[in-house]
Write a structure and sequence with these properties.
The protein is an alpha+beta fold. The protein has helices at 3-25, 62-78, 112-120, 148-153, and strands at residues 28-32, 41-45, 54-58, 88-89, 97-101, 128-132.
Length: 171
């Protein structure tokens, strides 16, 4: 059996689980491991059914990003949470987090499961925003004095333009 065939079957199982999650709780979270030169990322799928943007995180361990995204998604569906650029989110963790717009669509291009779900459920795409964690001193990547490693770790620009045309790894 070819790797492409295995990948297709794996993606089909993931898609079926995502649809079941959305039907059960209103969203699902996908984790995509790191590539050769690209960081890991996680993202929600299905929040558009409730008129909310999906949310992604870059460069964090799967257990942390998935827990934060699940809590964030729950809050987005229960409360009127401001998801505008640089809006602070305090109800998700014991530290403030903030949203960033995926203005250049760099991560959106990699989120193939999300695109397929939106299409198959006939949902309007209401956006894709990044959930950002501050450095240990509470500074966000756009703040003066933010630890450079936190800026690099969470940058959507870690994804090259050429990889944006591909889907949720591996290929």
């Amino acid at each position: 059996m070819s790797n492409q065939s295995d990948f297709s079957k794996s993606m089909e199982r993931i898609f079926e689980k995502v649809i079941a999650d959305i039907e059960r709780v209103g969203w699902s979270v996908i984790y995509v491991g790191p590539g050769d030169e690209e960081p890991a990322f996680s993202y929600t799928v299905g929040l558009a059914a409730n008129g909310r943007p999906d949310v992604f995180m870059i460069g964090l361990p799967s257990n942390l990003s998935m827990a934060l995204l699940n809590q964030c998604a729950s809050n987005l569906l229960k409360k009127d949470v401001d998801t505008s650029d640089r809006a602070l989110v305090e109800e998700v963790a014991q530290t403030p987090l903030a949203f960033r717009e995926d203005a250049d669509g760099l991560v959106e291009g990699l989120a193939s499961v999300r695109r397929r779900v939106l299409q198959n459920l006939n949902l309007e795409d209401v956006g894709f925003v990044q959930l950002v964690v501050p450095d240990p001193n509470g500074k966000f990547p756009w703040d003066d004095g933010c630890d450079q490693s936190y800026i690099s770790l969470q940058s959507p620009y870690a994804f090259s333009r050429s990889s944006s045309a591909q889907s949720d790894r591996p290929h």
